[in-house]
Design brief:
single chain; 358 residues; alpha/beta; TIM Barrel; Lyase, Ornithine Decarboxylase, Chain A, domain 1; 2 domains; elongated
Length: 358
């Protein structure tokens, strides 16, 4: 490949992160969430890396599950949004998928399937996030009404709104509300995502759904989370050009960065078409030759410009780390007024994912 813009996917970090998070809850089973192309890391590659440690996987939609099947991934797959159309119930059966049911319409679709062609299901409860799920007041009646659709693999699940925030008591409220109905129904439970697994011991139930933490994303507002996780992606590119400009000269669209002194500006082959955030501000950090350099001017579609005045011997072809092991993705996200989840998932398909093993 000519352009040296790549997302390096660190297989060792993925394995370490999953095992470390799962080890926090040794009495639970843990599955890797590989929705949204494994948070931008490449779902097929990630599933292949983790298939010997994650006995199930989770995706958002049935198409993501089928892509795993087409790649030879055979482990059961939980489809977190369940069926969007009635026909997906039989598709899920054909592809060994578990559908998460969050409304009665989905249960009716399943009920209309031939009895011998119904997939296993989970039931989702809305414990307070108010996005998807049966109301707390309805779930017991639903399980009685559709008892014939349940199986030994049926799990009752919910999702937290604030699990990363250790000072927010809403998670405890959700746990309490969910526990009351879960105890009454008597099904195995799945409550914890990565942040809850780390921050809320009471959430570590039958199944934990490990997502952003597997990829090295932020899982807690606490300073000491008791588990060490590593970035699983290094986004890197290279320098296309270097020029010196005079004091008072501007750089990039809108001339939003103006040199206060004679400055050395390097152009890097990455832009918002690659998923590097257009909203990154001047002084967003990158790494060049072992030192931090900083964004100078607006992000373009295919390029950025950085101030390397303080770094010696910068030349065309030098590698630039946009985020990864030296520049935390959370720091870049803050410079773009967003979160690490968005940066991971928005790396575009024109950026090759290169899997590296130690």
């Amino acid at each position: 490949m000519s352009r040296q813009t790549q997302a390096i996917i660190h297989a060792d970090a993925l394995l370490h992160n999953f095992k470390s998070l799962a080890a926090i809850a040794p009495s639970s089973q843990s599955m890797a969430v590989v929705k949204a192309d494994a948070y931008g890391h490449g779902a097929v590659n990630v599933a292949r890396i983790l298939q010997h440690v994650s006995s199930q996987f989770a995706v958002a939609i049935i198409e993501e599950a089928i892509a795993l099947r087409d790649a030879g991934i055979s482990a059961p797959v939980v489809v977190l949004e369940g069926a969007h159309q009635a026909k997906e119930c039989q598709m899920a059966f054909q592809h060994n998928c578990i559908l998460v049911m969050h409304c009665e319409e989905q249960l009716q679709w399943l009920n209309n399937c031939p009895e011998n062609q119904r997939p296993h299901i989970w039931l989702k409860v809305d414990s307070g996030m108010h996005r998807l799920g049966f109301a707390i007041s309805d779930i017991e009646d639903m399980t009685k009404k559709y008892r014939h659709l349940l199986s030994e693999q049926t799990v009752i699940a919910t999702h937290f709104a604030c699990a990363d925030d250790v000072d927010n008591g809403f998670t405890a409220s959700q746990l309490s509300a969910f526990k009351r109905v879960a105890d009454a129904i008597g099904l195995p439970t799945s409550v914890a995502n990565s942040p809850a697994t780390v921050n809320w011991p009471a959430s570590r139930n039958a199944w934990n759904r490990l997502g952003v933490g597997v990829y090295g994303g932020a899982v807690s507002t606490a300073n000491n989370v008791g588990v060490e996780i590593y970035p699983a992606m290094t986004l890197r590119s290279s320098i296309l050009a270097v020029r010196t400009i005079a004091a008072g000269e501007g750089v990039g669209y809108g001339q939003t960065w103006v040199a206060s002194k004679p400055s050395k500006i390097a152009t890097v082959g990455i832009g918002y078409a690659d998923g590097y955030p257009r909203h990154c501000k001047n002084k967003t950090p990158v790494m060049v030759r072992g030192k931090r350099a900083f964004l100078a001017g607006r992000v373009s579609m295919d390029m950025i410009t950085i101030d390397v005045t303080h770094i010696d011997n910068v030349s065309v072809g030098d590698e630039v780390e946009l985020w990864g092991q030296n520049v935390p993705i959370q720091e870049v996200a803050a410079c773009a007024d967003t979160i690490d989840y968005e940066l991971m998932t928005r790396v575009s398909q024109r950026v090759p994912r290169i899997v590296k093993y130690l």
